[in-house]
Amino acid sequence: MMPEEKRTVKMPHNVILEDRKKLSVTGVEDIDSFDEGSITVYTALGELTVTGIDLHINRLSVETGELLIEGDISAFKYTEGRVQKEGFFSRLFH
Q: Is the pTM of this model over 0.90?
């Protein structure tokens, strides 16, 4: 018999922006910080920072990893966040 493998279910990660007023994000694992100008969340694919004016979190489901942000959204960007800082390619070409 093979030893039992530990299985982790990775939530799918999607970002949908509607008219720069509504941003739906799935695969959210945690919220780092938020205010009316910036919201930073940890996703399955890294740290996501959303910037804008009058931003509000209208829905957050920790169980499903769904987040809905509304406001005047000007930008969103990914950084590596909690993910290991030095990846394979950075070690290879460093």
A: no
